[in-house]
Specification:
heterodimer; A: 290 residues; mainly alpha; two-stranded antiparallel ribbon; 13 helices; 72% helix; B: 392 residues; alpha/beta; D-Maltodextrin-Binding Protein, domain 2; 15 strands; 34% helix; globular
Chain lengths: 290, 392
């Protein structure tokens, strides 16, 4: 027996499920398509324009000269390679540091301590990005920074401002984004699977490589998407702790004032790199089990 | 499934192509608009100021430096000050809109004029303009075809600042920052803007006179390439490129940078924090700047804008501002009103000889600024791409 409807709107959605779905999705879809994809499209289209030599105003005539300049001028190859290198290095370091910590948080720590540890990992995210990077600038200072003060008696010296400074700072900044997905993945890992592996005679190392890592691999990949793409686009850290080392974001920053189309052409490079990265991630099957 | 996917991609591609085709044509602007005929009435109640650091102080940096609050009290125009680090930032911010007045250096003013971002200024509405030094009026960077676009603020040189604890035997030459055998290699800082290429050209004027550079903003391709080569040679010496003066102050305090180009206001601040420094104009000369207060083309606070221009050009306020920043004032009557009676002498405000080897920031154009017609000079857009390639 069908129920009678009392209000028009309730009944309308019930009778027209497709419209109901459309109404539900319209706001997020508008955000995704108009704001997000639309702005990416605007960026890409801008890359085909050029600027007036003197005033710097946009000239909306179609030209490929920006892409030609970016891909044929060998001066830009180092910065592209360096940026990808930094992103990969930061991702690797975040995995190396985050995996043991997440393992401790989910498997070794008692349930009473787990929420506290999660809160402690999340606390740095409350501080402003700039505050954290300037704090690292003070610490990395080659003359009077804390790291220099600490390493001097050992005969070493602070890495100072440069490539290493950028990697260290970015690793610190994005570590929570790597720890939390791995922690979530490890929490879902049934303890019985680990015990079964031990029962079958596997030592700790074998259990970790053959049982634990494959199961949490999707979580590691999820964390790596954060650290890789956030590092790829970063420019503020390079400005503050990078000394004279620049990243792709800095090239965009230097040129967008005077030559917006050229900056747009440069900005499409990280977009392409991240798309390639996501495609590789998808191919590896890591996202299937997420 | 395949066909609808292909159709989808085709639809996106077609839309993009249509967009590209629809947005056609170039845009060239001429210095437009009419100057406000006047009279200057009551203030609109607010004013948004875009200024170099130290130009529009409201007491937040130091209680002694405040000429914005008295302006607010006198005119009722509540002022909001935004500070920028380079001329490129200023141009971009003005193009974005939202600011009523801007203190533009010579390498920004012409871009703003030709980009239709500022309006001509009716000098009869700015009584204090009459007392500005004649040498600053009607210059190439603040007037076009006899039409004035702003009120001069002052002028200064980019100085060489060194930490005197490290560089003990005096620094009077830019060689300290350019030569590969410099004793402070690895601790030099340079200004992070394409206009810095002119400083390289300036050094070449002294060290490679055979290149024939007479104006560091007027470089043909050969001279430009030599300047870029010099900048590449300087790269190993550099610890950081600076545009944020607070970071430069921190770097000097921390001694990660011991030699750098600078503005007097930064040198004063660094000294006040206890670092022993000296700031001089080296023997090869220096690049410099002369700034102009300009009014945005589409400002809604026109009366407040004119009141600000008259206020900042007045002898008392110009003296305060010039003394705080450390530059030569624009108003000839300001010299008598500075707290330090030797200020104008120290900054050579009334000496024309001193400014002979100071090359004010100007926007380089394809038409050579030094008057040569047999070659084409490198325009600013190429300075920018060369700089971004250098900084990669």
């Amino acid at each position: 027996m069908t129920a009678t409807t009392t209000t028009l709107s309730g009944g309308f959605g019930y009778r027209h499920p497709r419209l109901r779905l459309a109404g539900l999705l319209s706001a997020p879809m508008a955000w995704l398509v108009l704001v997000y994809l639309g702005s990416l499209a605007a960026l890409f289209i801008t890359a085909f324009w050029t600027v007036d030599d003197f005033t710097g105003q946009l000239v909306r005539t179609f030209t490929l000269e920006n892409f030609v300049e970016v891909f044929t001028n060998s001066a830009y190859y180092p910065v592209i390679l360096r940026t990808v290198g930094i992103a990969l290095l930061v991702t690797a370091l975040c995995v190396a540091l985050g995996l043991p910590l997440a393992f401790f948080m989910s498997k070794v720590a008692t349930p009473r301590w787990q929420p506290l540890l999660v809160a402690l990992v999340l606390t740095p995210l409350w501080a402003s990005y700039l505050v954290k990077v300037y704090a690292w600038r003070a610490m990395l200072g080659p003359e009077s920074g804390v790291i220099q003060w600490f390493l001097e008696p050992l005969g070493l010296s602070s890495p100072g401002f440069g490539f290493l400074g950028i990697v260290i700072t970015l690793t610190y900044l994005w570590l929570p984004y790597m720890i939390l997905p791995i922690y979530a993945g490890l929490s879902r890992l049934p303890g019985s699977v680990v015990e079964a592996s031990a029962d079958l005679g596997a030592r700790n190392g074998r259990t970790i490589t053959s049982v634990v890592i494959p199961i949490i691999f999707p979580s590691i990949v999820a964390g790596s998407v954060f650290t890789f793409s956030l590092s790829l686009g970063d420019y503020i850290t390079a400005q503050i702790v990078g000394g004279k080392v620049t990243m792709l974001g800095n090239v965009v920053q230097v040129t967008y004032v005077n030559n917006l189309p050229f900056a747009a052409a440069v900005a499409t490079i990280p977009v392409v790199i991240v798309l390639l990265y996501l495609w590789a991630v998808r191919r590896s099957g890591a996202l299937d089990n997420l | 499934m395949q066909r609808s996917r292909l159709l989808g991609i085709a639809a996106v591609g077609a839309t993009a192509a249509l967009l590209l085709a629809a947005c056609g044509g170039g845009s060239t602007a001429s210095p437009g608009g009419e100057a406000y005929a006047g009279p200057v009435g009551d203030g609109e109640g607010s004013l948004s100021i875009l200024a170099w650091p130290g130009y529009a102080e409201d007491g937040s940096t130091s209680p002694d430096a405040d000429w914005v609050t008295p302006f607010e009290e006198a005119t009722g125009c509540q002022a909001e000050v935004k500070v920028f680090g380079t001329s490129d930032e200023a141009v971009k911010l003005m193009q974005g809109g939202g600011y009523d007045v801007v203190s533009a250096s010579g390498d920004a003013s012409l871009r703003l004029i030709y980009g239709d971002n500022v309006q001509p200024v009716n000098m009869s509405l700015v009584p204090n303009y009459a007392d500005v030094f004649p040498g600053l009026k009607d210059k190439a960077w603040n007037s076009v075809n006899g039409v004035n676009y702003g009120v001069p603020h002052g002028r200064g040189a980019n100085l060489l600042m060194v930490n005197t604890d490290v560089v003990t035997d005096g620094a009077d030459s830019w060689a300290l920052t350019w030569e590969a055998d410099s004793p402070v290699a690895g601790k030099v800082s340079a200004y992070d803007s394409p206009i810095f290429i002119a400083d390289a050209a300036l050094y070449l004027m002294a060290t490679q006179p055979e290149l024939g550079i007479t104006n560091p903003y007027s470089l043909d391709q050969k001279q430009f390439d030599a300047a870029i080569a010099l900048l590449e040679q300087q790269k190993p010496l550099i610890s950081e490129y600076w545009s944020d003066y607070l970071k430069q102050m921190a770097a000097f305090k921390e001694a990660s940078t011991v030699a750098s180009t600078t503005w007097q206001v930064v040198a004063n601040a660094v000294q006040a924090e206890g670092t022993p420094i000296s700031a001089v104009k080296p023997k090869e000369g220096a690049t410099g700047w002369s700034d102009t207060w300009m009014i945005a083309k589409d400002t809604s606070n026109l009366n407040c804008a004119y009141k600000w221009l008259d206020w900042i050009a007045s002898p008392e306020v110009n003296a305060q501002a010039a003394e705080w920043f450390g530059e030569a004032p624009a108003n000839s009557k300001a010299c008598a009103l500075t707290a330090n009676k030797d200020h104008c002498a120290a900054y050579h405000a009334e000496e024309t000889d001193y400014w002979n080897d100071v090359y004010y920031w100007t926007t380089p154009t394809a038409q050579c600024l030094d008057g040569r017609t047999d070659v084409e000079c490198v325009p600013y857009s190429e300075w920018v791409t060369a700089w971004s390639a250098l900084r990669s």
